[in-house]
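Two records follow; treat each independently.
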Amino acid sequence: SWLKRFIDNDTRYEQFLCPLPRPSLTIEESRGNCPHTS
């Protein structure tokens, strides 16, 4: 779906690129790890 997002520049697909991290010990690891968020 990331390809679809870049081809169509469709921000509806943003949520599939970078899902919100679930509350866990890996939140710190996931934070700031997504170049596609605005």
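The next record belongs to a different protein.
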Amino acid sequence: MGLDLLKLFGLKNGSSSESLEHGSLFTRLSELLSGLSEREVAVITGISGLLGQVAYADLEISDKEICKIKSVLQSNLGLDEQHAELVVTVTKELTRELAGIEDFRYTRLINEHCTKDEKMQLLKALFEIASADDSISSDEDLAIGNIARDLLLTREDFISARADYTRFLDVIKNLPKKDTG
């Protein structure tokens, strides 16, 4: 049994145009979070999708990153533990399965529904995820930079958000030590 591309892209099973527009993660989360408004599900989709994207930038999602994503969803979005766990499970599954195919949808959802201040909070949360294992790889840093650009934030905004996390950057940690003698 091969990969069903029509199903993967939401073109089967009578998918609504909304599902096609917002993608697989939105569709799955809409089902799981049926008590929330479309806007709330859209914001949760955008944020969890981007958190997953950064966690998977190095092609693995660690347990520490999963715990941090869950924590961010609970503290920043007010999800209870059960809903946060469901969102994390679906996000992790689809992040690996889709491997970047729908990433543009997440920034679009955030741009449609969030203010600049909320985007800056998200950028800091992305650095929290990337630094969950006490290290931010070049791939994770690049992914966050690309997300910042796609969120229509400036380079200065990116640098400001990253300032508290520079000690975790692999590129900084791996600099040769200066001889002080």
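Discussion point: DSSP finds eleven helices and no strands in the chain. How would you locate this feature using only the token line?
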